[in-house]
Amino acid sequence: MTDCPMCCRWDENSDLQIIELQHSYVTLNRDQYFPGYTLLFTKCHATELFHLDQDVRSALMEEVTTVAQALYAVYAPDKMNYELLGNMVPHIHWHIVPRFRSEPLWPRPIWAEPHDELCLPVDEYRQRIERIRRELA
Amino acid sequence: MTDCPMCCRWDENSDLQIIELQHSYVTLNRDQYFPGYTLLFTKCHATELFHLDQDVRSALMEEVTTVAQALYAVYAPDKMNYELLGNMVPHIHWHIVPRFRSEPLWPRPIWAEPHDELCLPVDEYRQRIERIRRELA
To answer: How much is the pTM?
Structure first.
């Protein structure tokens, strides 16, 4: 879809790209207030899990799981959070977020309070991405 | 686990029970501020998707999908939200929530602002549960 911002996000976020998987693209979230916050979005334009074929859905959920496990290995969080919302951008995109007891917001959801975006120097994005990629290799 | 509130939730919430599936229990959320807000939690005590065997995980995600599709059919929302958090109660439980443009909180996540719990008369819970069950049948 030409008017879907998620459909062209992979090309436009080259500095945040982690990996291309069979059914999804995986990028670091630009706002790293929550360290390791990662987005995984489908290659096809779909908006609900039940719009996907079962084999694609299962494979997609294996990709979500693999990425979550890699983030868990890199960041050693207290819990992983997995969210598929899409109220603003309906194209399926998973928010996969390592969560820590040490956070000011813990144990509430990441959306419970607004916060200032934490953008990183390009080198720090690169380092985070490389650590995640090594874990996914 | 004896100290996990989710491990005994099915027995203790008999007025909210929707259905028992192969790998999960499904209940209406007591707070119905978001109409149709449903919880789906695993029968086994597990805390992360990557702790489950692949076949169980895939089957579980089919159950999440089936319930989401039923809620979509009953409520005709603008979007379904699917969230697996567990920062307070780590036992895997999915928040499956129909979302509407007409809500005061739209398009923000359900956690973006606090709200007063909306508890229903027992009959209204029963009616909601029956509609969802019929769709699942």
So the answer is: 0.97
Nearest to A133 by CA among A11, A16, A3: A16
Question: How close is the nearest chain A Cα to the Cα of B52, in Å?
Answer: 10
Instruction: Confirm if A81 and A109 have CB atoms less than 8 A apart.
Output: yes
Instruction: Judge whether A86 and A47 are in contact, CB under 8 Å.
Output: yes
A115 to chain B: closest CA residue: B112
Residues of B in contact with A72 (CB under 8 A): 48, 50
Cβ of B88 within 8 Å of Cβ of A69? The answer is no
CATH topology of domain B9-136: HIT family, subunit A (3.30.428)
Which residue in A50, A81, A90 is closest to B65 by CB distance? A50
pLDDT per residue as tens, chain A (137 positions): 669 999 999 987 789 999 999 999 999 999 999 999 999 999 999 999 999 999 999 999 999 999 999 999 999 999 999 999 999 999 999 999 999 999 999 999 999 999 999 999 999 999 999 999 999 99
